[in-house]
Amino acid sequence: MAQQRILVVCQHFWPESFRLNDVCDYFVEQGFAVDVLCGIPNYPKGKFYENYTYVKNRKQQHNGVNIRRVFEIPRGQNSNFGIFLNNISFSIASLFHIPRLLMKKYDRIFIYQLSPVMMAAPGIIIGKLKKVPITMWVIDPWPESLFSFLPINNQFLRKVATVVSHWHYRHVDKLVLLSDRMRDKMIEITHFDKSRVIMLPQACEKLYEEQPKDPQLSKRFRGGFNITFAGVITPILSFQTVVAAATTLHERGYTDINWIIIGDGMAREWLETVVAKHKLSEHFFFEGFLPKEEIPRYTTNATDLLLSTLVKSDFLEATVPAKITSYFAAGKPIVLGMDGAAHDLINKVGCGFAGPAEDVSALADNIEKIYKMSKSERAILGKKAHDYYYENFERNIVMKKLLEFMYG
Predict the structure, then answer these.
(1) Which residues of 100-131 are buried (b: 16+ CB within 10 A; e: fewer)?
(2) Pairing state of beta strands 305-309 and 225-230?
(3) Which of 405, 396, 408, 407 is nearest to 23 (CA)?
(4) φ, ψ (nearest 5 deg) of residue 63
(5) In whole angstroms, what is the distance from residue 106 CA to residue 34 CA?
(6) CA-CA distance, 373 to 333, in Å (whole number)?
(7) In the β-sheet with 257-262, what is the strand arrangement from edge to edge?
(8) Residue pair 308/321 in contact by the 8 Å Cβ criterion
(9) What pairs with residue 7 in β-bridges?
(10) Could you give the domains of the chain?
(11) pLDDT by residue for the chain (408 residues), tens digit each?
(12) Which helix (H) or strand (E) holds 352?
């Protein structure tokens, strides 16, 4: 039997740090030939990575994956206009690669749909022209993800964004979604039969299971109660709620809480300014963007509690953010300030506490509950997260289900 070949379409790929990298590694491990159509790496800082230009390293190989990079305008200062130019430039330029890709034989097309949804267009067009089954994994549901960070009040523009977004979802063969709630909403949008839709969590890389010792890092944060956030710093994560909760806890007398922020993104500068305005700078530690291999050092040696929040959104509440699975793998208590699927999951598993989105009091109260626990009580919560991870979120379990669904 000839080797099966998969075309993967996504604006973001290695060396940018997205879970798609590990998905493609798994495809290669299972014996598939993999081609990736992606952009020139510039996320999240907004400038091309070292050794990448409009002409340099446009074609590469990495871990057995063939990479073809599409022209795009870098995000620059991560302003709304800069992000718009970045997104639209990739979406348009990717279409010029279709004729070349039509010359190759593909057995499946896999679209890893981040923002914007238009990044999926070349995969959909190639799949339709060559009658190749298309599977899309919806990570950033549109237009709701768009509306969450770019308020669009004009009803005509909102209608256009909705129609364009739903067109992409209706023109694939199968959808992979992050929660049962998202699955139900997407079936309503697409009118797909349930057999064409599956719910899968975003599996984290195996490295998040590791627990490396780092005495220096442990010493640095010794003596405080350490709350860690790891991920991209964007407006949809409602950091205003985090800062308000930090202020509330400080006013309650909890002056030994450290807020460790690992990551970068369009809202980082704003967040640092707000933290300084509230006179909390000595309690917030901005570690910046770190390779994912560094994250387990923090979760093992400098974390008592893992934190994530989201803004209120009817559609975002149907998602389980990618960081949640890696939080489970870390085996530490989790506190969330968000609605929907992730909120329900934490409370069901009993590995922490989840309150409503943008509810400052609830977030502060839930953090206080874990602050007051003994180390042994916190360890029980962490073990519940760890056990649930190995039963439901472990990488090979999820990836096997993905492949079976694509080829089923």
Answers:
(1) ebeeeebbbbbbbbbbbbbbbbbbbbbbeeee
(2) parallel
(3) 396
(4) 50, 40
(5) 9
(6) 11
(7) 284-288, 257-262, 225-230, 305-309, 334-337, 352-355
(8) yes
(9) 35, 109
(10) 5-199 (3.40.50.2000), 206-393 (3.40.50.2000)
(11) 679 999 999 999 999 989 999 999 999 999 999 999 999 999 888 899 999 999 999 999 999 999 999 999 999 887 878 888 999 999 999 999 999 999 999 999 999 999 899 999 999 999 999 999 999 999 988 888 787 667 788 899 999 999 999 999 999 999 999 888 888 889 999 999 999 999 998 888 899 999 999 999 999 999 899 999 999 898 889 999 999 999 999 999 999 999 999 998 888 999 999 999 999 999 999 999 898 899 999 999 999 999 999 988 776 676 778 889 999 999 999 999 999 888 999 999 999 999 999 999 999 999 999 999 999 999 999 999 999 999 999 999 999 999 999 998
(12) strand 352-355
Query: In the numeric block, which tokens belong to residue 113?
Result: 């749909």
Please give the radius of gyration of the chain, using alpha carbons only, rounded to the nearest integer: 21
In one-letter notation, the amino acid at residue 196 is: R
Q: Which amino acid is at 143?
A: P
Task: Enumerate the β-bridge partners of residue 299.
Answer: none
Token readout for 142 is 């549109």
Residue 171: is it exposed, middle or buried by C-beta count within 10 angstroms (0-12/13-18/19+)? Answer: middle
- Cα(168)–Cα(170) distance, rounded to whole angstroms? 6
CA–CA separation, 230 and 299 (whole Å): 9
Quick count: other Cβ atoms within 10 Å of Cβ 11? Answer: 27
Q: Quote the DSSP letter at residue 391.
A: I
